[in-house]
Amino acid sequence: MHNAVIAASILSADMSKLGEDTKNVLDAGADFIHIDVMDNHYVPNLTFGPIVVKALRNFGIQAPLDVHLMINPVDRIIPEFAEAGADYITFHPEASENISHTINLIRECKCKPGLVFNPKTPLDILKSFLGKIDMVLLMSVNPGFGGQSFIESVFDKLKNAREIIDQSKYDVRLEIDGGVKVDNIRKIAEAGADTFVAGSAIFGSNNYKTTIKMMQEQIALVNN
Ligand code: DX5
Ligand code: ZN
């Protein structure tokens, strides 16, 4: 399993001072910045485009940027996110006309590709793409909004994904996204996640540093 990573989702950051808030969450100990790209079509919400990713880089943000595309179509804009400074680019297979093509495109753009599975999407296709991707992202809420509750049935799915990854010889991160809090992150880590997206739990807290530290402590109880 990979080292544990906290990916702070800026969907819950203060949009009026996004650069500063992003810097603050990294200073507080977040490892990655998770960027939820929504198009008011694949999901009923509208958020960030490549210019926001570029602006964060220009502001001086150097951490890995984990760009989660909830958009359809997906291919056309991938090079723009790569050019803007994305590191990981994950997408929902149902939003792609040709999954292999989209993965290859992300790779050609020098980014790390990942596949995202909605809570009700089975993991059937995972095995056939494991050798081509760097990240598997399991949604533990229905995509579109921050601040929702973790869907309990995803615990078993997470264990299943962990088994599939471990049985393969491939080096892939297993990320969980939605409803991750201090009080459930240990159980999520036990189920096999190594990359934890958290938005409202961090940005909605009074002290980012304390919250991230508590999350890391919970995860460490599993890894040690
Ligand atoms: C939902 C997004 C999540 C969201 C998580 O579509 O993909 O990344 O920001 O937010 P919280 O941590 O508040 O559930
Ligand atoms: Zn996300």
Describe it.
This protein has helices spanning 18-27, 50-59, 78-84, 99-108, 126-129, 154-167, 185-190, 200-203, 208-223, and strands at 5-9, 32-38, 65-70, 88-91, 112-117, 135-139, 173-177, 195-198. The protein is an alpha/beta fold and 224 residues long. Strands 1-2-3-4-5-6-7-8 form an eight-stranded parallel β-barrel, surrounded by five helices. Helix 2 runs parallel beside helix 3 (78-84). The longest helix has 16 residues, at 208-223. It starts with a strand and ends with a helix. D-xylitol-5-phosphate binds at residues 9, 11-12, 34, 36, 68, 141, 143-144, 146-148, 177-180, 197-201. Zinc ion is lined by residues 9, 34, 36, 68, 177, 197.
Summarize the structure.
By secondary structure, the protein is α/β, with parallel strands linked by helices.
- What hetero molecules are bound to the protein chains? D-xylitol-5-phosphate, zinc ion
Whole-number mean pLDDT: 97
The major pleated sheet works out as: 8 strands, parallel, barrel
User: What order do the SSEs take from the amino end to the carboxyl end, as H and E?
Assistant: EHEHEHEHEHEHEHEHH
| Number of DSSP-assigned strands | 8
**Oligomer type:** single chain
Number of helices: 9
The assigned structural class equals alpha/beta
Shape, please? Answer: globular
Which percent range fits the helix content?
Answer: 25-40%
Span of the ends, CA to CA: 13 Å
Approximately how much beta-strand content do the residues carry? 15-25%
Radius of gyration: 16 Å
Unreliable runs: none
Widest beta sheet: strand line-up: 1-2-3-4-5-6-7-8
